[in-house]
Amino acid sequence: MTISTDISLIGYLKKYFGFDNFKGNQEEIIRSVLAGDDSFVLMPTGGGKSLCYQLPSLIMNGTAIVISPLIALMKNQVDAMRSFSTDDGIAHFLNSSLSKAQIEQVKSDLSARRTRLLYVAPESLTKQENIEFLKKISISFYAVDEAHCISEWGHDFRPEYRRIRPIINQIGTAPIIALTATATPKVQHDIQKNLNMLDARIFKDSFRRENLYYEVRPKINATKEIIRYILNHPGKSGIIYCLSRKKVEELAETLKVNGIKALPYHAGMDSATRSSNQDQFLMEEVDVIVATIAFGMGIDKPDVRFVIHYDIPKSLEGYYQETGRAGRDGGEGNCIAFYSYNDIQKLEKFMQGKPVAEQEIGKQLLLETVAYAESSVCRPKLLLNYFGEVMDGSCDNCDNCLHPKEEIEGKDFIVKALQLILTVKEKFKAGHIANILAGNATSSVKSYKHHKIPEFGSGIDQDTKFWNAVLRQSLVAQFLTKDIENYGLLKVTAKGHEYLANPVSLMVTRDHDYEAATEDAIMAQGGKTSTVDEELFNILKDLRKKISRELNLPPFVIFQDPSLEDMAIQYPINMEELQNIQGVGSGKAQRYGKQFIELIRTYVDEKEIIRAQDMVVKSVVNKSGLKVYIIQNIDRKVSLDDIARAKNLEMPKLLDEIEAIVNSGTKLNLDYYINEVLDEDHQEEVFDYFREAETESVNDALDELGEDEYTEEDIRLMRIKFMAELGL
Q: For 279-319, what is each residue's pLDDT tens digit?
C-alpha cells in the first residue's frame, strides 16, 4: 500500500528516531519507497541504509519484509526498532534460532497486524510453510539488505540469494528496495537483473570517506605490529579481520595474553558465544574483535577507530565494506592491511578444483586486490574508481599520498619478461621466470637447462624480488594470466601479445615488493638475533654446574644446552620471559630459574645491553594436536606401541615427541609401560647411571651399561623417566 509523498517526513523522522535532518539521499530514497517504486540503493557503510526501509515500514500499512543474510545480527536490528516503540510486536525476526513457541508468537503478531518490520534469513524465506503463511500477510514492501550477496561477482556471493525473486513472486509482489554498501557497475546490474528490477530508481551516494586513513604494510611480524599499534591506541575500539577461523582464535588469544581486551568471532562458534562476544564488543566490555568476514554486516557501532586486515581479503568489495566499519561517526578511522603475495598464492590454490567460471571470477577479483595493494596511486582514488566513481586530486590521507613510492619506466622490463615466458613455451611459474632473468642457477633452472639459454641473466642487474614484482604488475595489467588448474603457469594474453607488438611507456613501482618476511627483515624489526652471547653462555654453564653440585644432579637435568643458548640470545630477566625460553616449562622455571634470571639481569645491567624485547610479544603456549594426543593417552596408560600405531609413527619418533614434552616441563608417568619392558633391577641400574652421568648421551649409556643388556629404546625410556622425576 502506498501513501502520498507530500507528507512531512521530517516529522516522522523526529517522532520515531529523534533526528532533525536526513543524511545524503535518505529522504529521496524513502519517498521512492513510499511512492511504491522499486529502488536500488548504493550507499557506503555508515551512510544510514537501514533508515531507508525502517522509517517507511513505520509509516506504511502492512508489514515490510527485510531479507538479511546474518541471523546473529537480526536481534540487534529488532531490539533497535523496538526501542522506538512501546510495543515489542512492532518488529520481529524469523529464523532458525527461534523455538516453536517463539515462532508462534511472531506469527500471532503478524496476523494481528502489530508487526511493521519482519527480518527474515533467505533460508527461512524459502521454507514452504513460511511461504504459505506470508501469503496471508499484507506486505508493504520487500527490502533486500546486503544485496551484493546476489551476484556471483560480489564479494560475498550466496546462492540462496538468487532464489529471492521467485519466492517473492510466490508470496505476493510488492515494491522492492535493494541495498548494498559495495557494488561495482557489473554487480549492480547483476543484482537488478536477478531481482527483475532493471527499471528501479537508482540512488548512489559518494563512496568517499574523508575521515578514513588507508595504509598497506608488508606482512613482516604482523602480529607484533598489531600488538604495538593497539597498545599505542589504548581504549580504542577496533576490528581485526583474518581469513581463517584458526587464525582468528590464535590471534585473539595472543592479544589477550598481551594485555589486550579481545575476543574472537567466526561462523564456526556456537551462536550463543558469537552473540555474547558481539554484545561485549558493542557494550565496550572488550576493545577488539578478531573476526572472519562473518562479523560486521549491520553492526551499528559508530566509534570503531581502526580496522586491521591481518590477511588481505579476496576482493576489493569485501575490503571496502570491512574498512567502512571504521569511523562511522565521522571521527578517526584507520584502515591498515598487511599484505604478502604469498597470501594471494594461497587463495589461488584454494580455487583449484572449483568450476571454471567460478575460478575466472575469483582470479579477476584477486588481480584487482593485488593491483590495489601494490599500486603507488592514491588509495581512495583507486577504490572509488573500482566502484565507478571519479575522484579529482589526491586524498592526502593514505600511505601513498603521504609517503609517495618510487616509480620507474617499466616498458623494457615487461617486454623482457613477456618474451622469456614465450621462449619457454608458457610452461613455468613466476618464480622460475624471475630466477632465469636474475641469473639464479637454481636446481629447477638447471634441470630444464635454462641456465644455458641466451635470456639467462639478461636481467641480472635486478634481483628476483624485483622481477617477481614486474610479473605481478604484468598480471595486474592483464598482459599475463595464471593457469590455476595447471599449477599457476604464466600465459601471455592477447593483450600481452599486443603490448609486445607495440610497447608503450608503463611505469612500475620499484619498492612495492610485499614478499613474505625474510630472516633479515625479521631481524630488522627487532626479532631475536641468531648470535649467542658466548660470554653469558659460559657464565650460565658455570652457574648450572654449581647448582648441579649442590643438588647432586647432572647439569643437563637442570637446563640443557639449547636452553642456555636461548637464554644467551634473549636475555630473560623475569620468570615470564624465562618460560618462553626453549625447553623451559613452568616447573623448571620455578624450581631452578630464580638464580638464572638474577644473573642475567645483573649481566644486562652491567653490560648496558639493549635487549631485542623493546616490546615483548608473549606467545600463546600451543601444544600441537599430536602432543596433546600423546599426553592424553599416556595419562590413560595406553601402550606406547598402540599410540605409535594410531599416529603412524615409528617408536624412535614417538620417543622424540615424548622427550620434547618432558623437556618443556610437562610431567609424564611412563611407569606402566616401562614396567612391562624392563625389570626393577635394570631400571635401577640405568637410573643410577644417569644420576652420576656427565652427559645425557644414549650412546655413552649403552657403552657403559652394555648393548647386550639394553636397547636404545630402553635407555631412552629410562632417561625420560629420570628427567620427569628429577628434572621438574
A: 898 888 999 999 987 676 556 688 899 999 999 888 888 89
What's the one-letter identity of residue 517? Answer: A
**pLDDT tens readout for residues 72-124:** 567 777 877 877 777 788 899 988 778 889 889 999 999 999 999 999 988 88
Percentages of the chain per state (helix, strand, coil), in multiples of 5: 50, 10, 40
Alpha carbons 147 and 178: distance in angstroms, whole number: 6
Distances in Å between the Cα of 499 and the Cα atoms of 268, 504, 608 are 47, 7, 60
- Return the higher-pLDDT residue of 508 and 115: 115
Kindly state the percentage of the chain with pLDDT values over 70. 90
| DSSP secondary structure string for all residues of 495-552 | HHHHHHHS----EEESS---PPPPHHHHHHTTPPPS---HHHHHHHHHHHHHHHHHHT
Residues 601 and 477 in one domain: no
> Where is 337: in which H helix or E strand?
strand 333-339
Question: Is position 357 within any domain?
Answer: no
Which domain range does residue 506 map to? 407-511
SS3 333: strand
Of 361, 391, 395, the residue nearest 378 (C-alpha) = 395
CA pair distance 648, 634, nearest whole angstrom = 17
Backbone φ and ψ for 724, nearest 5 degrees, come out as -65, -35
Give the residue, 17 or 433, on which the prediction is more confident.
Answer: 433
Q: How many whole angstroms separate alpha carbon 432 and alpha carbon 425?
A: 13
Looking at 545, 577, 607, which one is the last position of a domain?
Answer: 607
Q: Are residues 128 and 103 both part of a single domain?
A: yes
Query: Which amino acid would we find at residue 434?
Result: A
Q: Are strands 63-67 and 237-241 parallel, antiparallel or unpaired?
A: unpaired
